[in-house]
Amino acid sequence: MNQSPPTLTSTPRRILPAIRRLDEGWTVAAVDGAGVPAEVRGSIVAATVPGSVHTDLLAAGLIPDPYLDSNERQLAWIGLADWRYTTTFAWQPADSTKTELNFAGLDTVADIALNGHPVGQTRNMHRSYRFDVRALLRSGLNELTVTFRSPIRHADAASLELGYRPHVNHHPYNAIRKMACSFGWDWGIDTSSSGMWRPVTLESWSTARLATVRPIATVDASDGLITVHVDVARASDAAVTVAASVAGLDTEVELAAGATHAELSLRIGDVALWWPRGYGEQPLYDLAVTLRSGDTILDEANKPIGFRTVELDITPDAAGTPFTIVINGQPVFVRGANWIPDDAFPHRVDRARYRDRLEQAEFANINLLRIWGGGIFESDDFYELCDERGMLTWQDFLLACAAYSEEQPLWDEMQAEARENVTRLAAHPSLVVLNGNNENIWGYEDWNWKLRLDGKTWGAGYYYELFPAIVAELAPHVGYTPGSPFSPAVDGDVDAHVPNDPSHGTMHIWDIWNQRDYPNYLDYRPRFVAEFGWQGPPTWSTMTESISDAPLTPESPGMVVHQKAALGNAKLTDGLLAHFALPNTIEDWHWAMSLNQANAISTAVDHLRSLQPHCMGSIVWQLNDCWPVTSWAAVDGYGRPKPLLYALRHAYADRLVTLQKRDGAFAAVAVNDSADTWTGALTVQRLSFAGTILAEHTEQVTLAPRSTATVPLPAAVASATDAAAELLQAELTGVRAHRFFAEPRDTALHVPDLATSLERVSGGYRLTVTANALVRDLALLVDQVDPAAGVTDMLVTLLPGEHVTFDITSQAELTAADLSCPLVLRSANQLVALG
Predict the structure, then answer these.
(1) Is this model's pTM higher than 0.90 or not?
(2) What order do you get walking across the sheet with 296-305 strand by strand?
(3) Quick one: DSSP state of residue 5?
(4) Domain covering 754-834 in this structure, CATH number
C-alpha cells in the first residue's frame, strides 16, 4: 500500500457499469380486492416510478385527493387490495457478463417476475434488492411485473404468525417492515399504500463492480484519518485494484483472485474540521474510489466526507447522568426538532423540498434534526444537504411505539436493513447519533407491555445486541443509544434507572400535553429532552384549502378527520382555558390555538435553555408534517410556517434572555450560545402596561462563549403591585425578554391600538406597525391574504410608542388595509378582549 499516485502504463479505459433507469412505460392495475370500485377494477392505469398506487390513481382521476376533507376514509380499500405494476423494455445482449435488476425501494410486500418467470419476493420497504436476471432476459421486448400484496392483510397475517405484541394505533405495523406511519399516526393519514417508492434500474457489468464504499473519517490530533472499506461484487476471479484519492493523496490495494473486501487508509495533515452550524465551518473533502482491472477502470464512486469526532457524554455526576453530544471536544447544546417523513408519499419529496425544509429549520435556529423511528432512513439528498449546512442529524432505527418479535423472519430483515442503511449513512459527518428505537424500552417498562407480552420477545435483542454491534462494526465514529428515551446503564446494568427518568439521560415529556397545562414544563429539571410538544392547527390557508366544511368549525366533519390525536380537540381546549377564553368563531379559534401552541413551546424551550449545562438538549416535537393536519408541527403539511416556527426562532436564538423563577422569585437568565463573549448591562424593569417604569435593576454581566448567567432580582422588581397591569422586561445589548405576572385572560390588555404604514419594496412589501398601547404577541398572518407569502417575524411584544417592521415576500397586489385587517394583523390582545 502507498500514498503516492499509482503509475498506469497508458491512459486508462473506462468500462463502467451500464445503468439504465426503468422509470417509463409502467402501468398499474388492481388484481385482487373485494372493495375495489368497478371503475378501478377494470382499469389499467398509467403509473409513475418512483411512485405509489395512491398517486397513480390520483393522477388518473380515479380517486379524489386523499389529503382533502374526509377522502382518507373513502380510500381505505386501496390498502386492502393487491396491485400489479407492469412495464416492457427493449434489451439486447452486450459484452457484459452480468445484468442485474436493482430495486432501491419497494413498498412493501412484492413478487417480482420477468417474462413470466419468478425473480424474487420482497418483504421490506427499508432495504434495496438486487437480482441477477441475465438468464431471464431475451432479445427484444421484455416484460417486468411487480405485484404488491395488500400491506394490511399481510400485516394482520404476520401478527398472527409472530404472535400478538403491543403497539399503538389500529394496525399491527410492528409485524411488517413498512414505514409505521403508513398505517396512520396521531398526526398522520392512513394510506397503507404500495408502490416502487425509489428508483428501479437495470445494471450491466463485467469482471467486477463496487458493491459498497464505506469511508470512516476520524481525527487524530491535527490529522484526519480515513479508512475506506470497499466491498466488491465479482463476475470473475480476476485480480482487481481498488484505489482511493482524497486531498491530493492516493493509495491503492490489489485484491487477489476471488477476494471481495479491501481497506484503504490515508492520513491528511492539518485537516480542516467539520463543525455543526453555529460552531464553525463545514469543510468537505472529495473522496474518489476507483476499481480497476489492469489499466481498465471498471467502476468508480465519489463521496464528500467531513472530519469530526463525536462523543456522547454520559459520565455520572452529582445530579445524575448527563446526556451531552460532544463534537470535536466541544459540548453542544442541542437546539433540535424531530423530523417525520415530509409527505405521506415519500417519493414526492425531492431535493428542492428537503432544501426548503432545512432552510426553515435554519430560520428557527435549529442545529439538530432527529429522524423519528416510525418513518424512513432518510435519503442521500437529505443527508448531503445536512452535511453542507452543518445540520446535525440523529437517525432512529425504524422501530417505534411497539414491541417487536425477535424471531425469524423479522430478525434477519432487521439485520439486513440495519447493515445496509448504516453502511449507506456512515460517511455523513452530520450523522452523530444512531438510536435503537422510539419509546419501546419506555413502553416495555411503563405501559403494561410485560403483562400483555406474557414472556414473548419484545425487541431488547435489537437494542442491546444487534444494533450496537452493527454500529460498532460499520460506523464506530457515530454515537449509539439503545432508545429514546434512554437512561444509561450503570456497570452494565441496563435496568439501573427507569426509562424516562429526568435525572438520567434523555427523556420525553408528554404528560404536559396529555394531562397538564404547559406552565408545568417548569417543574422539570431534565438532563436532555428528546421529545415534547403542543398541538396547533395548520396555517389558515392550508386548513381552508384542505377542508371545505360549511360551516367550518373545530368539530365539523373534515376538521375531525384532520385531527388524529386521541381527544385532541378536548386537549386543545383544556390547554387554552387557563390562558384565554374559548373563542366562538373559527377564525379566532384558529388564532388562539396557534398562539397557545407557540407560547407553550416557548415556555418549555426558554426554561430548558436556562438550565444549561445541567440540561444539554431540547428536541421539539416536531418540525414538519406529512399532510394538512392539526398537529405538533412548526411547519404545516403544505410547507407553510406556523407561528410556532417564529417562536422557535426567538427561543433558539444564539443569545437569549429569559425571566425564570429561582428559589420562588424571578431571576433574569442570559444564555450565550455564540462563540463570542457577551458583555453588557443587563437591565430588568417592572413596567406598567402604559410603559411607566415602576422599579428597575441593572447589573453588569460577562458571559463566556457557550455559557449562562443568572441574575437574581430584588423583590421591588420581581414582585408586582398590580399583577393584571404590570410586566417585567429584561434587556441585554438589545436582546429582550418579557414576563407577565398574570395569564393573558386575567390581565388588562385591550383591543390593540396600532398604526400601520406600507411600503412596496423589491420582492414584496415592508409593513411598519406602531403600538399606541401595549400589544402582546403581535403577528402578521400573511397567508390569509396571499397563501404564497412569507414574513420575516412574528410574535413581537411592543410597549407604547414602539414599532416593528415586517418584511413580506409576495407577488400579490396587497394594500395596507389588507395587511392591517384584524384577521391578518393578530395579537394576544384580541383574544383577551373576546373574554
Answers:
(1) yes
(2) 13-14, 296-305, 285-293, 240-246, 249-255
(3) P
(4) 2.60.40
User: What is the three-state SS of 685-753?
Assistant: EEEECCCCEEEEEEEEEEECCCEEEEEECCHHHHCCCCHHHEEEEEEECCEEEEEECCCHHHCCCCCCC
SS3 letters for 627-645? Answer: CCCEECCCECCCCCECHHH
Class of domain 18-202: mainly beta
The phi, psi pair for 515, rounded to 5°, reads: -135, -25
Buried b (16+ CB within 10 A) or exposed e, 21-44: ebeeebebbbeebeebeeebeebe
Locate the domains of the chain by residue range. Answer: 18-202, 207-305, 320-547+598-651, 655-746, 754-834
Q: What does the block give as the cell for 82? A: 393487491
Say what the pLDDT of residue 266 is.
Answer: 97
At the top level of CATH, the class of 320-547+598-651 is alpha beta
135: buried, middle or exposed (CB in 10 Å: 19+, 13-18, 0-12)?
Answer: exposed
pLDDT score recorded for residue 490:
86
Instruction: Give the DSSP H or E segment for 508.
Output: strand 507-509
Q: Give which of 510, 462, 461 is closest to 485, Cα–Cα.
A: 510
What confidence score (pLDDT) does residue 10 get? 60
Q: Considering only the top CATH level, what class is 207-305?
A: mainly beta
Task: Look at residue 579 in the predicted model and tell me its pLDDT.
Answer: 98
What pLDDT, on the 0 to 100 scale, is given for residue 32?
86
d(CA 611, CA 198): 44
Which CATH number is correct for 655-746, 2.60.40.10, 3.30.430.20, 3.60.15.30, 3.50.50.60?
A: 2.60.40.10
H-type helices in 454-508, by residue range? 460-461, 467-474
Task: Please tell me the distance from the alpha carbon of residue 576 to that of residue 677, in angstroms, as a whole number.
Answer: 39
What averages of pLDDT result for each successive group of 10 residues across the chain (835 residues)?
48 91 97 90 96 98 97 96 98 92 98 98 98 97 98 97 96 98 97 98 97 98 97 95 97 95 97 98 98 96 98 97 98 98 98 98 98 98 98 98 97 98 98 98 96 97 98 98 94 86 97 97 98 98 98 97 97 98 97 98 98 98 98 98 98 98 94 98 98 97 97 96 98 98 96 96 97 98 98 98 98 96 98 90
Degrees, nearest 5: CA angle 534-332-389? 80
Residue 329 — left, alpha, or beta (φ > 0 → left; ψ -120 to 50 → alpha)?
left
Q: Contact, 214 vs 431, CB < 8 A?
A: no
Give the relative orientation of helices 351-363 and 380-389 as an angle to the nearest 10 degrees. 40
Asked, colleague to colleague, whether 18-202 and 754-834 share their fold, the answer is: no
Q: Which residue has the cell 470535536?
A: 328
pLDDT at 643: 98
pLDDT of residue 2: 42
